[in-house]
Give the backbone structure.
Amino acid sequence: MIVYGFINSVILALMALGFSLTFGISRVANFAHGGFYILGGILTWFFLMKVGLSYPIAAISAVLIVGIIGALMYRVLLIRLRGLELSEVITTFAVGIVILELLRSIGFMGFDYRIPIFIDGSIEIFGQYVGLQRVIIVIAGGFLLIALYLFVHYTKIGLAFRGVAQEDHTALSVGINPDKISLLSLFAGSVICALAAILILPLGSISIDEGYDVLIKALAVCIIGGLESSLGVIVASFIIGYIEVVTAMYISSSLTMVTTLGAMLLILLIKPSGIFGKSKDIEERV
Amino acid sequence: MRKLTFLLVLIFFVSIFVISSSGTIVTAQSKVEPIIIGVPSSLKLLESAEGHKAIILAAEEINAKGGVKVGNIKRPLKVEAIETRDGEPGVPIADAMLAIEKLFLEKKPHAVVLGPFRSEVLLAAMDIYAQYKMPSINVAMTPKFVEKYLQDPQKYRHSFRMMDAKYVVGYLTNVMAKLQKDFGFNKVYIVVQDVLWSTAIGNGMQGWFQKNNWDVKGYDKYPTGASDFSTTLIKAKQSGAQVIMPIFDMSTSGILVQQWKDMKVPALMAGFISPLMGSKAWTTFGDKIEGVINVVFQAGNIPLKKYPPATKFYEAYTKRWGEQQSGHMPSESYDSVYILAAAIERAGSLDPEKIIKEIEKTDMVGCIGRIKFADHQFIFGNDPKTSAIAVVYQWKKGGRRVPVFPDSIAEEKIEKPSWMK
């Protein structure tokens, strides 16, 4: 239970990280997250199976394309709606639905679309056999978090990200263009989302409906952890990951989503901005 | 020059005459009104999409032979499908009903085949069929279909159905009895998708296990879309279950089997998992699925050496569509068109009341076995010569789907996974 709870938590963190990063910097709640996730998986599958590219090239191509689509979504649609939060949500949600339903309508349905696992086999951890793909997910998830930390703390763009995240008007006064940084945050969030898909989707086959589930899970993690907090995402992932495993183990596997969303509601009641959230205006309004 | 001009003008007029004459022939042919077959289903789902393709194949075969004889006129079949989206999560039943009514009002079908994907929607659709007096041969599996029909046979006389979850229970109980006899197994862990049809099978099987000296070590239900089954597998392993019985039609259920192999759970996986149904599953999942025992609801969705009509359909489908099927609806959908065509010919009319009387009398050989109805439901058994059959098969080395039950069509014996031996 401890082993699989841990793996589950890392998977959740990966699913939510891109959403949290984008919101943390640009304050755009990217509801197209689930669409980008599935698009990342489908593009990788397409480049691998239909175009015949090697795994790394297929993955990099898919990740870049999804990143560019995320950036374009900001440049073409969202830039006109800045500040209108509800409109931003509706727009990104619409983009997500368009992506998912378009993929469905052009024939990506059924059980045949699967990204191959990186390495086959399993190893024993604390007396429990674990598939190597899950081990890779945990290791890659750890690397991604460290890389992200180093990026935002020790690179010029990363520092600009943090500057805009803290106060965009002040950032503007020191020569940082918030629109450009927001665009880059959409790019980075979408790239991370596609990376997560490439790591996680080999566990099963690609299903369009999973895009909606991923969005709900990412939202639950981010709301519990605090929408803009990467640390919150990690903590919340572990809370939800273990809640799911304990629920499935001791109560009922059919109630895992109920307990997850129940935890989300509880956090909203106690601390509306999430465990590590800093949205004071929400706290004050409540 | 004048001669040449005359010749060209002559050729032009002759051409016009020939074209217009042939147009008349086409028009004359098209004056024979087609028989419209309505296909309201969740067409973006693989199962319904393949069922739809099988219906088109059957209609094309019948049309190639001149069509369906109604009285003295042979009329072609025309398939009109509509997307109900009823198999997609979150789509209200009312929306699917609107789609069905739209099909009825705009395309005016003479009968319906395939029908809604989800059982809940089929139950609601039975009232629409009654309202529009629409003969229908459906696929959704809930046992409540027969219950509802029997509540008011006169009202629901237009509804027929090709599969029933209770028959799946019957096949699974036979397989479990076989496992008990061959390997001495008596500890089982049930894991199902939390939807009406699969919980009905799960509940039915739980009752059977308890009455037949099996120890049910656990019974887990997963919401549609679940993607981690480790807790069930850990519990199954810890409890000493010898058989894990899954019932799923969601795409993420393939993960269950991969985890089962990765975690080396020493239990035979025997049940129903949609993603492992078709021959392409081996390409998708590789040897992770080796050893899994799966039920394909009807013959024809898997080729059978001992029942040639099943293989004939399987090959015809592959030839027509350029790919093998992956689902579990094509063969019954294909047969349903032939049932309907035969009923119309016997009735000699498109009067719905006459058609349903003839469908009730159906007794024919199809790719799914011998087809007869009781209480507007296909009769299933263990021999394709006497009844329709489902097929239990096991995935074996090299990606072979080997029929193992019923005995009438079995080709090899059941084997335990390598890590259980």
Q: What stands out?
A: Chain A touches chain B through 39 residues (CB under 8 Å). The first strand of chain A starts at residue 122 and ends at 125.
